[in-house]
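User: Hi! I'm working on a homework problem where we have to compare a predicted structure to a textbook description. Could you give me the structure for the chain below?
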Amino acid sequence: MKILKVCVCSDSHGNAAGMTKMLEYEAPDVFIFLGDGLRDLKALKLPSNCRRYAVRGNCDFGADEPEMRLLNLENIRILMVHGHRYAVKSSLLRLSLLAQEHRADVTLYGHTHRQDAQWIDDRLLLCPGSVGSSHGSYAVLSVDHGRFDFVLKGRGALQP
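Assistant: Happy to help. Predicted C-alpha cells:
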C-alpha cells in the first residue's frame, strides 16, 4: 500500500490562491484545512481521489464544519482544531491535554499564523502557519501504517 501524502493548511483569510498553488504543487491524497477561510474552500479544485477534512475557526461565521475532528489515517490518530478555544497563542498546555484526552498521535492546529512543531508527551502538536499570508506556509504529513513524518513548508514554497 502507498504512503498517504497529507497537506495541512490553515488561515487562508480570503486568499484561496495559496491553497490552489499548494494543491497543484503537492497533489495530496488527503487535504486538511484548520479554519479561518472555509469560504475559500469552495473555489478549490481538489485532485481526483483526494479526501478533504476541515474544521471551522473563529472567523468562519455560520460554517457547518465542526470545531474539532478526530481522524484515523493509516492507524495514526489525528486531532484537528483551529486552536482559538485552547489559547494556543500563549501556551500549548490546554491543547496538549486535549491531545492526551483523545489519545491523538498528531494534533493539528492553526490560529497563530506561525509554523510550529513540538513533541509533548510523545505526541506531535503541529501548526502549519498561514497559507493565506505572503509567504504561504503549510505542512505535509507522510502517513504509513502507524508511522508518520512531517515537513514544514514556508517562505518561497508557493512562489512561481
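For your comparison, note the following. The CA atoms of residues 119 and 125 lie 6 Å apart. The chain has two helices and ten strands. Good luck with the assignment!
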